[in-house]
Amino acid sequence: METLEVSKSIQINSKTENITLVEKLIDEVCEQNKVTEDHYGNILIAITEAVNNAILHGNKNNPDKVVNINVETVSNKLSFKISDQGKGFDYNNLPDPTDPENIEKPNGRGVFLMKNLADEVAFHNNGTTVELKFTVYAN
After folding, report:
1. HEC states along the chain?
2. Which of 13, 17, 38, 50 is 20 to 30 A (C-alpha) from 57?
């Protein structure tokens, strides 16, 4: 039977400078779980992309709206849930950032990166919550 070992959560206002608080949370969780450097990099990039999307696209940079970040650790799996107060989005019909017509665009890579860096990505609540799961092995 899997047991819940650690559960943490933070809430930030929708300001990009609050990403540093998220990075601090990721550092703590990865340190506590003795996450390897390779996994740490993937987790850091994927989670900061998710939080950036929540701030910029979900909450439209409105500092009065919040982003919730919840982390659960079960055995060797880390599960991050990032929720915003936006209207959601159609996560099934996103443009392919690797398509030649999209290569030069400055945005549109966040979900692509998340899907390539996390072991599992799931969207809930019409896309206002993204769940990213990582299987990690300790050093």
Report:
1. CCCEEEEEEEEEECCHHHHHHHHHHHHHHHHHCCECHHHHHHHHHHHHHHHHHHHHHHCCCCCCCEEEEEEEEECCEEEEEEECCCCCCCCCCCCCCCCCCCCCCCCCCHHHHHHHHCCEEEEEHHHCEEEEEEECCEC
2. 38
pLDDT above 60 for 19: yes
Domains and CATH numbers, the chain: 4-135 (3.30.565.10)
Question: What pLDDT is attached to residue 103?
Answer: 77
Q: Are 138 and 35 in contact (CB under 8 A)?
A: yes
- One-letter amino acid at 68 equals N
Asked if residues 44 and 80 have their Cβ atoms less than 8 Å apart, the reply is no
Residue 101's contacts (CB-CB under 8 Å, 6 or more residues apart) are none
